[in-house]
Amino acid sequence: MAEVDGWKEFFTADGIPYYFNAGTQETSWDKPDCLKTEEEMEGDGDYFWAPHAEEGYVSGKVIQTYMDGSKDLLLDSGEIHTTHPDDELHPASKMMMNKNMDDLVQMDEITEQMITHNLRKRFYNDQIYTNIGTILISVNPFRRLPLYTPSVIDDYAHRGKRQLPPHVFGIAEESYRGLVEMEKNQSILISGESGAGKTEATKQCLMFFAEVAGSVSGVEQNILLANPILEAFGNAKTLRNNNSSRFGKLISVHFDQQMRICGADTINYLLEKSRIAYQLQGERNFHVFYQILAGAPDEWRSEFHLTTPDDYMLINQSGCIELPDMDDAAEFTEVLEGMRNLAFSEQEIHDVFQIVAGVMHLGNLEFGKKESKNVDASRITNRDQLGICARLLGVSDGGLENAVTTRLMEIRGQAATSIPLDPVKARDAAMALAKQVYSKLFDWLVMRINISMAPPKGKKTSVISVLDIFGFEIFDLNSFEQLCINFANEKLQQHFNQHTFKLEEQLYRAEQIKYTHVEFIDNQPMLDLIEKKPKGILVTLDEEIVVPKGSDQTFLQKIHKAHGQGKHPNYFQPLKSRTDFVINHYAGDVTYCSDGFLEKNKDTLNKDVIDLLEGSTQGLIQTLFPVSAAKKTRKVSLGGQFRQQLTDLMKTLNITEPHYIRCVKPNPDKAAQDFRGTMCLEQLRYAGVFEAVRIRQTGYPFRHSHDDFRKRYGFMVPEHKSVKGAKAICKAILEGLSGTSKMDFTACQIGNTRVLYRAPEHRNLELLRNVAVEKITIVLQAWQRRIIVHRMVKRLLEIRPVLRQAIRTRTIAALEAALKESADAEFEIKEIIDAKALKRLVEAEERVTATMEGLVSQDPERVYDQLQAAVQEAEEINFSSSLVQQCRDIYELTTQKRVCRKELEEATANSERPRLEAALAEADRLGMSSTSPLVSAARAEVDRIIKEEKVIAALDAAMASGASVDWDHTTIVFDKLDAALKEGNAFGCKTADGKRRMEEAQLIRDIRRCLYEEGWKELGTFLKKCINISFTNDEVSAAQDELSHKCAVDDVLERLQEAIAAFDQDSLAYGLEQAQRLQMDQQEVHDARVLLDQITHCRAIIEAAVTAVDEDQLRESVAYADAFSYNTDEIENARYLLSEVIRVKKDLATGLHYFEREVMDKAVADASAINLQTEVRDEVEGWLAVSDEKFLQQQLKTANKLHDPARAIRIQIKMKDLYFESHGKMFVFKQYGNLRTPDLYAKAKMFGRDKLKLNMLVWVKEPIPTSLTNLNSVHAKQAVKLFKNILGYMGDRSLSYPTQLAQDFIEQGLATPEIRDELYCQLIKQLTENPNPTSVGKGWQLMEFALQTFAPGDDFANYLEMVLRTRKPGEQKYLDMLHDTQYGPQKMSAPSVDQMIGKTDYKPQILVDAATEINPDEVVVVDTSKAALPPSLGGAALSLANAPVPPAAMGSVASATPLSVAGAPDAAMFAGMGSAVPPPSAAAAASVAANIPP
Questions:
Q1: Mean pLDDT over residues 676-705, rounded?
Q2: In sequence order, what DSSP letters do the residues of 622-681 get, joined into one string?
Q3: Is the pLDDT of residue 360 over 90?
Q4: Could you tell me if residue 966 is left (phi over 0), alpha (psi between -120 and 50 degrees) or otherwise beta?
Q5: 543 backbone dihedrals φ, ψ, rounded to 5°
Q6: Burial class (CB within 10 angstroms; exposed 0-12, middle 13-18, buried 19+) of 1203
Q7: Helix 992-1013 × helix 1034-1044 angle, to 10°
Q8: Per mean pLDDT, which range of 15-24, 402-411, 486-495, 560-569 is the poorest?
Q9: CB-based contact 1141:1174 (threshold 8 Å)
Q10: Given a cut of 80, is residue 146 above it in pLDDT?
Q11: Contact 587, 686 (CB under 8 A)
Q12: How does residue 1 score in pLDDT terms, banded at 50, 70 and 90?
């Protein structure tokens, strides 16, 4: 806000605005008019608090006043609230409402309105705790807040003189400190209505003591383990609270002389037995009934006849069975574990739950009328249910039925008489039995727990008692239970008032200041009304149960007579009621209904029922109902018992230093973020809070010790330094401030040790201080920055020579030490960067050296891949040494041998003599063994080829003789050729040349046979085969000439026309050959010759292109065929091959561009399928042949080059997978370099060091003394706290709210990078040798939370990953979580533990096997084909110069299409075929024509 007229707005550390005028030096909390907006000017004045039915009070500006006195208020929410004419409005201050005070007595304006407003404001900020002086107000948030973690406990346990926000741990710490320092027993009184959070506050106090004090025998954990048992048997769901304590309790925690917990005991008050028989709609019976039905083992289900909750009358009538936030089966398991840990025997546990089952079955008894003379009698109609109840309670069937269907009446001097009960009364008797048995069982459980936790006998102990008792109750119908509860609260309120008042006056007297005596409300008359003899209400009630014909009505008449009609100021007699009486309690008027008072106060069973239970065969029933107890002692009424308990309780509290927690329930719906002001106001009144505020308000609520006062305000009056004496210094400060500010501070009281004052002086002092702090802060900040920079420079100058020296030494130890010493550097200077780089380089060199040392002595063939990787890594880091050179030489020699072996294999398989001879020479040069199978096979193949060449020579000689001479078939000789063929077939030619010669020789043999036998048709077939394989010689030519002359001219022409129409090459060639020999010159012959030239050329270039698999040749040959409409399967195959070549080239280029193995593999396979050879394919195959590690390295380079960080991350993860497979043993958790040594770890504790050393890295149930890793003291302390979170979450230590412990664990890990590795080490420790499967499961769950929240440090990541791989093999989700956190974006806030628990499976963000996004359009294909046409077809330099002229150009074939392709060979190869053949005679021609095949 800009400065106006010298005024400027500032803010306190709490965010409260104040105003300072630099010109006049004035200060003010109130906003000056010159700074106010127009809206604020209008809002000044007329701002009031008005009563509200739901919110208690609302504040707003009066905008309308009506004739009847009502007003319209414009609220801050924009709503209009109309007041009632009788409503009293109170002025409201917007400035005061903006404040958020954590101690209400320090508010400037302490009214009901401001107290409610401040509590509401704090509640919505999740600040549920607020102080009222020494009283703690706790507002139930109805949701879990991160307020109870071990870290928070530690903060309050070690707060020293620090001011921490109000908290239940603050109260617990004050009581523990009072026990230690003042050596006086302490008490914590926790009160509030059902659902206000009393039970939770009690548990948190006990947890604080357990964590802070500890114990030798682990008894502190037993105290916490007792809670689930007591809650199961004593808590229930009510309309106000899902886990409401239906009894009061005083838990006394005993401490030994070392202030460690040595035991505990519990006193229980007034269990709500009536709940056994009846619950309101929407409520539940005690938790244990539902728990046993949900979690009992099968053998108990059978033995106790347990079924489902719907089958039991005691729990199925209220319409509520299950609770959404409670797992009854899991709670039952926890109860059993608690009992066993508290040393309950298995028989005791069995008997307890047998009785619970018996009570449930009692509720199922059904009663009907029994025929009897002149009386209403009853009988049990479901006999099977009777038998079950009797067996479970250890009594006879008949005895149980008689006990609940009759009543034994005893008259002194006469025999006892059995009176039958009607079905309704019999049902009541059964319920009375159930209630009494359950009540006795509950008392026994409390006693049994006390035995398990009893302090050592004979030793003096100190005690902190925690009282969790019912709050004041006012219902529509109030009975005997409410009277007892409210009586207890009256007692406690008197204690509270007396203590609060005494504390104040004691302080004022000790300080010797002037003060006005404060009168406080003394409710002793109220207590006398209830308990004083002879006419107290409870005293009268006790007398009425023993007088003859005593009843509720006679009791009411007596108390009306004793106290009504104004005889007691707190008692009122309603005029229109015959059953009610009214008591004016401190919290308000309560109307009680006297119906049932006597019966409830008796709290006893009929004698026959007692006799029945005393004779039970069930062990625990015998303990609960001993034979002698009832006969020797007179039964004390329930009211009498309770009065005695209260008397004992007050004696206990009166000798302790009390601390108070008032729990408040903010709304009736148990809803989070819902604050109902009226409801909260009522509870605050019931708790006596406003009385406490009044007491503090009339005194001096603000107080500082002399030293604290001087420290806080003295800097504004420097002159005080010349004054001597603490009181004189404080006086000088106040006088100095009065002089400079013109404010009056004469009302401040300077006591012997403190300065005390009220709200106006406090406001002015704080205002002056804020102005002064604002001025000096700027100067202090500038100096502090200068100091920080100087320290930084100094530190950097100190570490620079250390780093340089370490770099010169070039050793890991020196570099690590130097880097560790420089870890606190604010930023990385060049030397730090160089040292880190050098450390990585030296580590790599040592790693390479270690690897090579292990490989150099091994068979290089067996370790070839590792050797290759080591040599490549050495090259990458430019590392050379004699060992590296030796390994490089071994690697290169091994590589050459591998290449040579491959060449020998291929040449042998293909029978290629030149390659074989060259490969054998290379093998000799490399010193390969001549006896190796591969070399031997190669040499044998060379010898075989030499022999084959002799066979071929013999074949050539046989073919050269024996042919027909001048068409004289008698001259044909077969012998030599047959012998040569036989020899060749027997030998088995394998070379390409040998196979060709054998085929040609066979054709010659077939041609000779056809000529000899004059099989002209068959001859034509063999001659076509010669043409197809391009084989010709004089003998073939002569056979062709001879056959040609046998064809008639017409037949030739007809066939030529058919061949032209069909584009039949063989027919064309054959026909033209015949025509040539017949010396035909018709147009058809000319056309046929042209077409044949085109087809022959086309097929030749198609064949060459297909053979070469060359894109350009294929494109040109297909285009050439298209030019003259030539189309065959051969052409279509070529066309398809062309498309495949284009596609495969694109795929090869794409695979290489993206370096994606799947694409590359497929492209190579496709190229191999079509025999495509290119340089790109060779390069791709070369990369596919390298090791996986090398391939991934190149993939990583490609991903970086293509700016694909997501893929780069996936590749790095795959590289790590490979690395862990071969080098995982390097990362054993126990070898992690930053772990403390066991000796150093154990030194953190004075005793038990040997055990600490032994268990440093294995599971324990106790907190650790220090961090597992080397951390500074601050972080080590934080780590020790967080280890308790692990213990609590895994169930190894009893702590509240496990999910909050986990949430705090991951949040602190995320916020503090320095401790992340430590936290992972702690988790690994607790998962090592852990004998508890449940704990292990929770530990891995917590590991999941951590892995999803924060990544480990670079130095520890590999160790953690190795733990995950070895301990959770096959469970990929842990590695996925780690990789997502390592490589994914860093989280700015921790995820919700509740949400993570709810997830059934984990969906990784980084999909390692995700397909790379490939866009072929971005890939440029460079033609690197290595194929070429053979020279006979134009070679690599094809041109259209020699191509045959297409028919369209000649005009002879009308249907032909224009030709646009070049490169055909000369057609003279056919023109000259028969030039040397003499023309046949006419007779010969006719003879031949007759034998021409069709």
A1: 81
A2: HHHS-TTHHHHSPPPPHHHHHHHHHHHHHHHHHTSEEEEEEEE---TT--TT---HHHHH
A3: yes
A4: left
A5: -70, -35
A6: exposed
A7: 40
A8: 15-24
A9: no
A10: yes
A11: yes
A12: low
pLDDT in tens, 741-783: 878 898 899 999 999 988 778 878 888 888 888 888 888 888 9
The amino acid that residue 196 corresponds to is: A
Q: Is the pTM of this model over 0.85?
A: no
pLDDT grade, residue 1480 (50/70/90)? very low
Residues in CB range of 1482: below 8 A, 6 or more apart: none
Tokens standing for residue 200: 């939770």
Q: Which residues pair with 418 in a beta bridge?
A: 408
Pairing of strands 417-420, 377-380: unpaired
685: Cβ contacts below 8 Å, ≥ 6 apart: 587, 588
Whole-number percent of the chain with pLDDT over 90: 39
Q: Distance between CA atoms of 1456 and 1063, rounded to whole angstroms?
A: 11
How distant is the alpha carbon of residue 1117 from its chain centre?
Answer: 65
- 427-452 tens-digit pLDDT: 989 998 999 999 999 999 999 999 99
Residues 6+ apart with CB under 8 A from 660: 134, 135, 136, 171, 188, 189, 191, 496
- Angle formed by the axes of helices 537-544 and 480-511, nearest 10°: 150
Q: What is the DSSP letter of 1476?
A: T
Crossing angle, helix 1372-1383 and helix 1333-1347, to 10 degrees?
30
Q: 248 pairs with which residues across the strands? A: 269
Query: How big is the chain, counted in residues?
Result: 1494
Residue 943 in tokens: 């010898």
Of 810, 873, 210, the closest CA to residue 865 belongs to 873
Neighbouring C-alpha atoms within 13 Å toward the C-beta of 594? 25
Which tokens go with 1486?
Answer: 């006719």
The pLDDT tens digits for 1179-1236 are 999 999 999 889 999 989 998 998 888 888 888 888 888 888 888 888 899 999 999 9
Higher pLDDT, 1427 or 999: 999
In the sheet with 80-82, reading across from the earlier edge strand, the strands are 80-82, 71-75, 56-65, 47-52, 90-91
Contact 649, 124 (CB under 8 A): no
pLDDT in tens, 575-603: 888 999 999 988 789 999 999 899 888 87
Is the Cα torsion angle 551, 557, 561, 564 positive or negative in sign?
positive
Distance separating alpha carbons of residues 481 and 758, to the nearest angstrom: 43
What average pLDDT does this structure show over 308-322? 91
Tokens linked to 112: 């009901």
Structure tokens at 285: 């019976």
Whole-number pLDDT of residue 1451: 36
Looking only at Cα atoms, what is the longest distance across the chain?
Answer: 169
Whose tokens are 């004390």? That residue is: 636
**C-alpha span between 283 and 700 (Å, rounded):** 47
| Six token digits for residue 776 | 């000096």
Task: Compute the Cα dihedral for 290, 291, 296, 300 and give only its sign.
Answer: negative
The identity of residue 1228, as a single letter, is: V
Return the C-alpha torsion angle 1234, 1235, 1239, 1242, nearest 10.
130
E runs forming strands in 1231-1293: none
Q: How far apart are CA 15 and CA 580, in angstroms?
A: 54
Locate 366 and state its tokens. Answer: 């059904």
Report how far residue 773's alpha carbon sits from residue 769's, in angstroms, rounded to the nearest whole number.
6
